[in-house]
Design goal:
There is one protein chain. By secondary structure, the protein is mostly helical. Helix content is 87%, strand content 0%. The longest helix is centred in the C-terminal third of the chain and has 50 residues.
């Protein structure tokens, strides 16, 4: 076997124009349906966790001093907890909407692939 030929063919395959298949299109549609919900969930979760952590730091007087800082920390911490708590239900609703938006196209394409 000529290993140089095999290596050359594998490199050439990387640069050759790719044919778009129905499976790739199906995966793209699936990602397009799920991506907005995923991005929102991660963003909201990170922000809510940071708000909760800031509230905890204020309440435990790691940052800030006095009773006012502690009360403010408790309030900020509760806001962060609420954000973390509503994150999953919002994700489920957004995911449902995304799936409903692209459901017809995805099912149609999946049926075309299955009928092959």
């Amino acid at each position: 076997m000529n290993t140089d030929k095999i290596i050359a063919e594998s490199i050439a395959k990387d640069y050759a124009p790719k044919e778009s298949s129905k499976i790739v299109a199906l995966k793209k549609l699936d990602n397009r349906a799920k991506l907005p919900a995923t991005i929102f969930t991660y963003s909201c979760g990170i922000i809510s966790t940071l708000v909760f952590g800031t509230g905890m730091c204020l309440a435990m007087q790691v940052i800030g001093k006095g009773l006012a800082g502690m009360v403010l920390g408790i309030i900020i911490g509760i806001i962060g907890m609420i954000g973390c708590g509503v994150n999953y239900p919002i994700y489920k609703k957004m995911l449902e909407k995304g799936k409903a938006k692209y459901a017809y196209e995805i099912v149609q394409l999946a049926n075309e692939i299955a009928d092959k």
